[in-house]
């Protein structure tokens, strides 16, 4: 086989990273892409998501951004407020994101992001989805990886591929097995001590309250912060839904972790967590129906020693799960897919024309280039998200006084302690064109590998 387009690509998981990878490989011309997903469908979580320019750029190249942008909110500013008083600590205007970075910063519904990617995939005859079919184990990693998958209602069977992309999320079985088989290592979970509520309020639910309606009709992301807690909120779905996502101490989970790391929360407990937040926040939390409070455990892992083994690569939350405080988790997963497609498409044709060992060695090198390009960058963003969380959650004392002074001085310094909203950090992340970086760096990095 001399043409990279004939390589058989297998993707595990149809989350943000899996869908993004499938579409990126199809757009590069790969002809055989199979996606295996445990769930029977895309299983949309009712939650919002931020869509920064760096991911809009990738989605635009994949041809699905217009559809996603149609319902999204084009964010024009962000307001960071003291949770208890609703007093603004900093206001960061973002009027010219589109002009500066070529794409806007938007907020949207997760269903709209996943749906836009999925609709894009459905137009590509190269992509086949196998829903209700879970990866059981990786039987071999090279030269041609072999996997066992299990459809929900039938017997397990084996699948062989040239390249396997494991976008199987935070609970990745591939990660666990890869570290054990490649290095005799285990992935170490870091206790974040944090959990999140995710809430969506409809226009009808908010209609009676002018202050709430003003939030829904705005183009503003608001973050209310307090000791060890915050709430971030923004409009999605053509300003018809107001999305709130919180972070608070993980008190309910310690004893009750389940398979999905979510739990039906108690409304009383949620109101209690934010007891000293301002009346506006309380009025919104009070709109959540009893029995519909859902809480997520926020999980991260220590940086992994490797992301690849043979012709198998991890991507997205499987290898760089992050706290959500920088709003880059899904963006990074989708970028990973685009970078992987670029790397595998650049495997030299003469290597693919050789025997299966030389072909597999070249593929393994291309996957290593992906790791070299993405690991330092995503590790920096994951660290920045943790740092931002620590700063946002400070209690009374000198450090908090200094933080609040830094918020006040933000307009002068061009930097605020909420790293998501900080113009210097935004510039660094939003201007990162991961596909262009790959095109520029691939040959040099490939040549450094034995
Ligand atoms: C509260 C909160 C708020 C967030 N806000 C943002 C935000 O504003 N912006 C942002 O960019 N990110 C945000 N994120 C992060 C983002 O949701 C994740 O980083 C992103 O979804 C990761 O994508 P993924 O494809 O790696 O994993 P996932 O989307 O989790 O997908 C993994 C998929 O693999 C499937 N799977 C798992 N195991 C198997 C198996 N053995 N066989 C087959 N299939 C399998 C799963 O069913 C799932 O469909 C937030 C996260 C949280 C918790």
TrEMBL record:
The keyword Transmembrane applies. Pfam families: FAD_binding_3. Keywords: FAD, Flavoprotein, Membrane, Monooxygenase, Oxidoreductase, Transmembrane, Transmembrane helix. PANTHER family: MONOOXYGENASE, PUTATIVE (AFU_ORTHOLOGUE AFUA_2G01950)-RELATED. GO terms for molecular function: FAD binding; monooxygenase activity. It comes from the Eukaryota. Belongs to the paxM FAD-dependent monooxygenase family. The chain crosses the membrane at residues 7-26. InterPro entries: FAD-bd, FAD-dep_Monooxygenase_BioMet, FAD/NAD-bd_sf. Residues 8-347 form the FAD-binding domain. The keyword Cell division does not apply. It comes from Lasiosphaeria miniovina. This is FAD-binding domain-containing protein.
């Amino acid at each position: 086989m001399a043409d990279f387009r004939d390589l058989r690509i297998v993707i595990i998981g149809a989350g943000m990273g899996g869908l993004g990878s499938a579409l990126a490989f199809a757009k590069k011309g790969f002809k055989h892409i199979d996606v295996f997903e445990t769930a029977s469908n895309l299983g949309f979580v009712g939650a919002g998501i931020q869509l920064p320019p760096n991911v809009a750029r990738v989605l635009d190249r994949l041809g699905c951004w217009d559809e996603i942008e149609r319902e999204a909110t084009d964010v024009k500013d962000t307001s960071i407020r003291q949770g208890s008083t609703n007093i603004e600590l900093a206001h960061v205007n973002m009027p010219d994101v589109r002009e500066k970075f070529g794409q806007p910063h938007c907020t949207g519904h997760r269903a709209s992001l996943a749906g836009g990617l999925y609709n894009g995939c459905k137009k590509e005859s190269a992509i086949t989805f196998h829903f209700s079919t879970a990866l059981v184990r990786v039987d071999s990693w090279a030269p041609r990886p072999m996997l066992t998958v299990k459809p929900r209602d039938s017997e397990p069977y084996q699948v062989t591929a040239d390249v396997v992309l494991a976008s199987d999320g935070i609970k990745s079985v591939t990660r666990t097995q890869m570290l054990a088989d490649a290095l005799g290592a285990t992935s170490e979970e870091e206790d974040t001590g944090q959990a999140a509520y995710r809430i969506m309020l409809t226009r009808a639910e908010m209609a009676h309250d002018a202050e709430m309606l003003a939030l829904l009709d705005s183009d503003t992301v608001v973050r209310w912060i307090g000791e060890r807690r915050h709430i971030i909120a923004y409009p999605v779905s053509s300003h018809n839904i107001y999305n709130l996502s919180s972070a608070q101490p993980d008190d309910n989970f310690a004893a009750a972790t389940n398979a999905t790391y979510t739990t039906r929360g108690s409304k009383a407990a949620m109101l209690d967590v934010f007891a000293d937040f301002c009346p506006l926040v309380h009025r919104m939390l009070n709109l959540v129906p009893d029995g519909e409070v859902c809480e997520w455990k926020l999980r991260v892992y220590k940086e992994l020693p490797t992301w690849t083994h043979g012709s198998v690569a991890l991507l997205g939350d499987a290898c760089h799960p992050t706290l959500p405080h920088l709003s880059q988790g899904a963006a990074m997963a989708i970028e990973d897919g685009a970078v992987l497609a670029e790397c595998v498409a650049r495997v030299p044709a003469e290597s693919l024309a050789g025997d299966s060992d030389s072909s597999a060695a070249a593929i393994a090198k291309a996957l290593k280039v992906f790791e070299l390009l993405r690991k330092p960058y995503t590790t920096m963003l994951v660290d920045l998200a943790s740092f931002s969380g620590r700063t946002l959650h400070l209690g009374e004392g000198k450090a908090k006084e200094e933080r609040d002074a830094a918020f006040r001085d933000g307009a002068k310094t061009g930097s605020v302690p909420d790293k998501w909203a900080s113009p210097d950090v935004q510039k660094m992340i939003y201007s990162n064109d991961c596909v262009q970086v790959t095109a520029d760096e691939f040959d040099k990095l490939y040549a450094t590998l034995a």
